[in-house]
Each structure stands twice: as structure tokens, then as C-alpha cells.
Design goal:
Layout (H helix, E strand, L loop, with lengths): L4 H14 L5 E3 L7 H17 L4 E3 L4 H8 L10 H20 L4 E2 L11 H8 L7 E2 L6 H11 L10 H7 L3
Parallel strand pairs: 1-2, 3-4
Helix pairs in contact: 1-2, 1-6, 4-5
């Protein structure tokens, strides 16, 4: 599961090197405003197509996402709002994986400087059924040069309207 091109580039390159059978799933109903979502989606698609890898896109169901974090909007980055966000996205990812013949999911959500990998991994423990979560220590440096050279957009906040307020970015 991917949140953006800068975070996913290294992971995609690592998976390609390993010969893994994978698909990059972009499901980020948390990203706001919609114009930011579209910008990140466009960059993710550009990255996947440049590397000749499969990708899939979930709906931008922002209202549904707001329901899942209701009551936690004022919390800090890396707080309970983020945990609920990860759980919501992992539930979608597990369902998508099962419907599309995959037995596991992994994520780059913890690579962002705004997030905590252990929080992401803990949120993934809620995945139930036949889909397992594979916690992977992705190498951030692998994709950075490619991202910089190709001029990919690099955002300055995690994605939701509440992370903009808590990080002071606009």
C-alpha cells in the first residue's frame, strides 16, 4: 500500500529487484483537499508507469474516512487519529488483496518523516482473515535519487486536513 510516490519509490525498486509479484495499491481517502489527492495520485501513477509496475487505485472516500476518525480530529500527529486512519486503510487493503488474489500486504505508510513505523505495524495487526501483513524495513535511500532526478512532487504534510494544522504546513 502506498501513500505517495516519494515514499513508495524505494519499496517498488526493492520489490522489482526481488522479482516479487506485487501491485501498488493507492488508497488514501485521508488526503485533503481533493486537489492534493489528485496531485499525489498523478505522481504515483507516473512512478508506477515509469517503472512498468501494476497499480490499482481505491476511491477517494473522504467522508467515509472522516467518519472513521471522528472525535480524534484535534489529536496530534502520530496520535490516535493516525492509528484509526491506518486501520481504516489496512482494512480496505486487506479486502482488496483478497478480492484480487493476493495473500499479503505491505505498506510504506511509516516511511514518511511525519509517521512512526511501529504505529503503522501495530495498526496492521487488526487485519483479519487470510491476508497477512508483512512488516518490511524499506530502504528509504534506494528511491530518493530517482525521485529527485525525475522531479517528483514531494509534499510537506502527511495528507489530511488535520495534519496540516498540527504540523503548521500549508
Amino acid at each position: 500500500m502506498s501513500c505517495c510516490a516519494p515514499c513508495s519509490a524505494g519499496a517498488i525498486l526493492q520489490l522489482k529487484e526481488q522479482g516479487a509479484d506485487f501491485c501498488v495499491l493507492f488508497y488514501n481517502p485521508n488526503i485533503f483537499p481533493e486537489s492534493e489527492y489528485q496531485r499525489r495520485l498523478t505522481e504515483q501513477i507516473r512512478l508506477c508507469e515509469s517503472l512498468c509496475v501494476r497499480y490499482a487505485v481505491g476511491d477517494w472516500a473522504h467522508d467515509e474516512w472522516l467518519s472513521c476518525i471522528r472525535g480524534k480530529e484535534a489529536g496530534p500527529e502520530r496520535g490516535q487519529r493516525c492509528t484509526e486512519c491506518f486501520k481504516h486503510r489496512f482494512a480496505f487493503g486487506a479486502k482488496w488483496a483478497k478480492q484480487n488474489g493476493y495473500d499479503a500486504i505491505a505498506s510504506v505508510f511509516g516511511l514518511s518523516r511525519h509517521k512512526d513505523q511501529s504505529q503503522v505495524d501495530d495498526a496492521a495487526k487488526n487485519i483479519t482473515g487470510s491476508i497477512r501483513y508483512i512488516p518490511i524495513n524499506w530502504d528509504k535511500q534506494i528511491g530518493q535519487k530517482m525521485i529527485e532526478k525525475a522531479g517528483f512532487y514531494r509534499q510537506n504534510y502527511c495528507g489530511c486536513e488535520f495534519s496540516v494544522k498540527t504540523t503548521g504546513n500549508t
